[in-house]
Write a structure and sequence with these properties.
heterodimer, A: 152 residues, alpha+beta, four-stranded antiparallel sheet, 6 strands, disordered N terminus, B: alpha+beta
Chain lengths: 152, 87
Amino acid sequence: MNSESMNNEQITNYALRITHYECCIVPRIWYNEGVEGNVTTSEAINQLVIATVSGGQAGALTDRLTHDGFQVTQVDSSGGILYEATVSLLIGLNQAHLPRLLAHVRECCRTRRRFIPAHVEAPLLEIQPVLIEAEVGGATVYVLDVERFEQL
Amino acid sequence: MKLIIAIVRDVDAGPVVEQLVTHGQRVTRVASTGGFLRRGHVTLLIGTEEENVQPVIDILRDACSPPEPGYHRAVVFVVDAPHFEQV
């Protein structure tokens, strides 16, 4: 067996494992959507979306988008008042699919309220840490017009 | 002024950046992941004049190694930058 065919076999094995993983955890309705909605292959890419989402929600959103046929590049970033870990997603798409992308983002990245311990200097008092209520999650989405798109 | 956002495989990033810098282009390199298997990619941000867009794309095409079947060497978005300033 030469090295090329071994490589191919390894790739196939990996693909099979991944497929199995998808079937286990992805609800069937997403899977069907992914098969029907082939978003980026045939149509011209004319917009670039830069979506910044919180780190905890990025995985679920990326999975969803990938299953719906979007092509996603993840960039780790941080920001906001708490310097929380965020992920910026770069997604090239045709304008026609923008509403569907935004629907995914809205469903996956709802803002929610969480209590975060605040640092209060009180050395002589044994008190419960003060909690402040903060909004976490949500997404910031920039849509840019692409003048030219190439896959080299 | 145009902003070129190019996504290349991490193994190609070194030679690509070297070639671009040799040709006088300014490059910002950002580590990223993507694709079906979430492999390592590098996102390059290249700000350049309109007439340099085609030369940059040619450099990207030449400097990236040939892709595996079914993959591309690089994905390139060119967006307009109406305002550019170096402070």
